[in-house]
Amino acid sequence: MTQVLQEEAKVPGQGAVPEKRNWRKYFSFSTDHKVIGIQYLVTSYFFYLVGGLLAEAVRTELATPEVDFVSRELYNGLFTVHATVMIFLWIVPAATGAFGNYLIPLIIGARDMAFPRLNAVAFWLIPPGGLLLMSSFLVGAPGSGWTSYPPLSLVTDQAGQAIWILSVLILGTSTILGALNFIVTILKMRSPGMTLNKMPLFCWAMLATSALILLSTPVLAGALILLGFDLIVGTAFFNPTGGGDPVVYQHMFWFYSHPAVYIMILPIFGLISEILPVHARKPIFGYRAIAYSSIAISFLGLIVWAHHMFTSGTPPWLRMFFMINTMVIAVPTGIKVFSWLATIWGGKLRLNTAMLFAMGFVSMFVIGGISGVMVSSAPFDLHVHDTYFVVAHLHYVLFGGSVFGIYAGTYHWFPKMTGRMVNETLGRIHFVLTFIGFNLAFLPMHKLGLEGMNRRIAEYDPKFTTLNLVCTIGSYILAVSVIPFLVNMGWSIFNGAKAPSNPWGGLTFEWLTTSPPPPENFEVDPVWTIGLYDYGTEEATEVIKAGPVLAMAAGAET
Amino acid sequence: MQSSAIETQTIVNYETEAAHGHHGHPDHRVFGVIVFLIAEAMIFLGLFTAYLTFRAVAPTWPPEGTPELELLLPGINTIILISSSFVIHNADSAIKKNDVKGLRTWFGITALMGIVFLAGQLYEYFHLEFGLKTNLFASTFYVLTGFHGLHVLFGLVLILAVLWRSRIAGHYSNTSHFGVEAAELYWHFVDVVWIVLFILLYLLK
Fold first, then answer.
1. DSSP H helical segments within A85-125, as ranges?
2. Share of chain A above pLDDT 90, in %
3. pTM for this structure?
4. Chain B 43-72, CB below 8 Å of chain A: which residues?
5. Which of A245, A443, A548, B144 has the lowest CB atom count within 10 Å?
6. Residue A190 contacts by C-beta under 8 Å, 6 or more apart in sequence?
7. For every residue of A49-61, which 3-state class applies, written as one string?
8. Candidates A219, A248, A527; nearest CB to B54
9. Å from A416 to nearest chain B CA?
10. Which of B8, B12, B35, B39 is nearest to A190 (CA)?
11. pLDDT reported for residue A532
């Protein structure tokens, strides 16, 4: 095996000796941000498959109107754990942990994160947290939805619910430690000359995300501590029979969980802003607009949580406040979408898998965004609240958005991470299957919701049978779509064509070092004054062609 | 961002890494502690807001039959904790003058004051006339003060760890005192949280 994994010879003039692949380090308490990033990525993909299997079980149950595949209790456990896994063990760790850890030190020209050991601790909280959550199936899985609203969560299966609380607390701690590291790294460790207004857009996105994590996740911890006391000790913070107020839990929960949707999408915005200009071979349009809109989204995201609670007895004036703020978020988000479209416009598009997923992201996310503006409207939300319309909306932003983005990022940086190219044919098959399966599975849910089908139910009115069957078939196609992806990844790691340092002609710093980068990232610290997004210009073409060699020569003269 | 020629493509060698900051620099670490404390503050802020909401929504507060809280013991405790913040600050001044002995003295006194505070809190717990589950006020009271108490305990562990390490000659000096600063910042944080807690739980009628 190791023979196949011998790295490419030194690039002439580059000097950096690529590291020999050592598999054991990926199972160790490594403090190398690249190892940790890949640990995050592989772990979160594993839990993606687990969460996917749970989703397939849910869809199988819903293929027919009757309860025939699993029991009602198990069904509740399935969708609860599906959501929890997909949020806390897949999208958040993949979007922030994996790409944040792998890319940030590289693209800012640093040699590691600010706190490498803390970084490793943050990662190693995830496997036990995930396994703990899975173990809840042995004692009766939590069945009150990923929101765990009391009083329902206080009366359903208690052991499973307690495990859910503990597991989410562990995963939340991991996220907070990660965010702390990102903030310090981005603010303190950029290479000389890289001012905030020159740093890559992914850094802006991660800075905004980390601020959100830092401000909102602790509040969820507070809510879960109180819920845990109610559940285990028998206090009555959220239990109306003891004088408590369940709506307070909803406020605390959504103060985290609404920002959480931006925690799941902002890093993806950043990834897309990096991927599109490279493959469109055009400068990014509206660098500052994209950068500052991340901050705007982050701020607005913190003050709109109660739009999840329009039906919780919130007074109309308060609904108005949250409704308007929520709708305003469409503005910075729209700025990003227009900037991306303007970036693609007139570009020389290179339609490889990474680009397909990136453009798939833009189109699918827009659909999710539009249905988002719809549900942000209180009168409309009162009608579709807790129906499949919401399920459709959230999957368009989280699957059509986050998951497409993570796929795009995986394909785009695969050569850098592994030193091998992916197989584009398999990649395109993966994209087509995902795109068809995804739309087949979730588009009909809009109609189901508008017609009044409730979410979180195991049996439904037979009039919804046909559409549900279509959704289920779509979900099976989605399940199948993972196969070419896994085959591609597995095959390419060993047999893919050797990747050059800069296969796509990128201008950000990570493309200036070998693929994969040596442990210290750069032989010489990358500093150049050409803009990081000046793709397509003559100077940029020259620089990309010459690559790090030119940088070396120029450096030698000075 | 559009057009800039390849004016200079400078190379910075490894030797100059200190110039642009590499990990392990004290200012990064102190900044990290501050960021961490922001996260900690948000937990407390969430719990305080929950408490204030319970209070605002309840028909009577504290719920009827809640015994009046004694102010003498927690008042003394509060004074001790606030004073300890001034005491621990002297340690910082001492180590900046390379005075390890001063550092040890001031940290020692702070640790003692912390222990007295925790003992006072435990004494109060055992003499209160309500339990954790008596009513919503009692529950929030115990959870909030208990959670704060755990933070005092953690701060105490940090202080004792610094004291333990300060036995090693040269471990802390005027150029290397991150541990001292971290423990001190944390202690100030715990102190500020207590002031808010004391106002919310004891003084606000």
1. 92, 99-107, 116-124
2. 80
3. 0.91
4. 43-47, 49-50, 53-54, 57-58, 63
5. A443
6. A108, A109, A110, A199, A203, B20
7. HHHHHHHHHHHHH
8. A248
9. 22
10. B12
11. 82
